[in-house]
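Collaborator request, handled under Task 6.
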Amino acid sequence: MNFLLTNEHLESQISQIKRLIRLSMNGVVADSMRNHGLIYKQNYGVAIPRIREIASGYTKNHDLAQRLWLLNIRETMILATLLQPVEKFPIELANEWLKKCDNIELVEQMNLNLYRHLDYAPDFSLQCIASDNELYKIFGYTLAMRVVENLTTSNLQEMTKRAIQDAGTATYQLSKAIANFFARLCRKNEATAREIFSEIQAINEQATNGKNLIYESVKHELIFLGFLDENL
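Structure tokens returned to the collaborator:
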């Protein structure tokens, strides 16, 4: 168990942040999120731009971010990802935070605000993709999409192989994460895009809803990039 030192200044910051969150709360949004499966221990329904605005009033601080994360409130957890210094976020802590990631919004915010900036992000994304936990897989493909330029050839080969395997039994959310990863990968160059599309065409012959979503997403990306005739 982690024990965090406290001080008056830190406690004052936590109290101030909680007050700002309460003043920005939107119960209607919180209820709507809950109805759409975004479940948190506590959720004030504060808009993401407002959360970012609150974060901008504070200097990045490891102890503050850790305290905010441990509060298990939607808004404080997202603030934690914005205020955690990258250089003080070892892989052991990254894994601890991952264990508390239990919905798609948090997957997006953790990757967008913090995990994509980590030096070990490529290896961490592959670790997640190789997991048997579906949400971890989604986390891994979402992270890989954001660090695609930093992935090694070995990373890409392993991720592509696993994505093709996962596509066979993927739920909608996992299929969407795989589709987004492939679509972003297609932007590297035309040769890569055509190689991916060839792989996708092969799995699409045994079409399922998930595979079809992946195929259509990649196809539309290639058309957008000018690598494929939209009339084909």
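The cover message to the collaborator said: "The two ends are 57 Å apart (CA to CA). The chain has a mean pLDDT of 92. Please let us know whether this matches your experimental observations."
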